[in-house]
Amino acid sequence: MVPASAAPVYIFPIDGCKTTYSRAHHDYPATDILTKKGCHFVAPTSGVIDEVNAVDTYSWKNNDGAIRGGLSISIIGDDGVRYYGSHFSKIYKKVVPGYQVAAGELLALVGTSGDAAGLAPHVHFGISWPTKAGIWWVRRGEIYPWKYLDAWKAGKDLSPAKEVFAKLRKVGEVPKRNGY
Fold it and tell me: SUPFAM superfamilies recorded for this chain (predicted)?
């Protein structure tokens, strides 16, 4: 008999620090989680590292949407959903594409890299579906994460998979870039 796989576990992505975040974002679905510089960013669920930008190449002169996040990480969760975090001050060396992560595993430290330079330290947090590399306008967020963050902060395992894949069916794998 093959054991049934366990339901995914979800963890609030900032560990050990006070946070605030809003239910809105400027022009696409995402959330900025404000906290102190150096706070721990942890894997919100188990999965595999998809993309990592370990070098901040952003400059205001080259305002390219693909690099606005500065130091960033994408995780493809075991639930099939992509979780994206950016503006880190440090990404740990173990965090490379293909690395298997466990829910709650320390991956990076909160910072102000990319276009967050000069702003309050925060993590830009986006939820979307997996795409080919370089489709940054999907990676940055396709559904609003706040209700999932609220649930995870309260210790509830609320999955965004149903909402993510409903949106994917509606808009297609690579919707038009809006805003950026």
Answer: Duplicated hybrid motif
pLDDT in tens, 66-107: 999 999 999 999 999 999 999 999 999 999 999 999 999 999
Domains of the chain: 27-170 (2.70.70.10)
pTM here is 0.93
Q: What is the 3-state secondary structure (H, E, C) of 75-142?
A: EEECCCCEEEEEEEEEECCCCCCCCEECCCCEEEEEECCHHHCCCCCEEEEEEECCCCCCCHHHHCCC
Residues 80 and 130: beta-carbon distance below 8 Å: yes
What is the amino acid identity at position 163?
Answer: E
> Would you state the pLDDT for residue 5?
60
Closest CA to 177 of 58, 27, 57, 74: 27
Residue 15 CA to residue 3 CA, distance in Å, equals 31
Give the Cα separation of 102 and 124 in Å (integer). Answer: 20
- Specify the amino acid at residue 79: D
CA-angle at 82, arms to 84 and 148, nearest 5°: 80
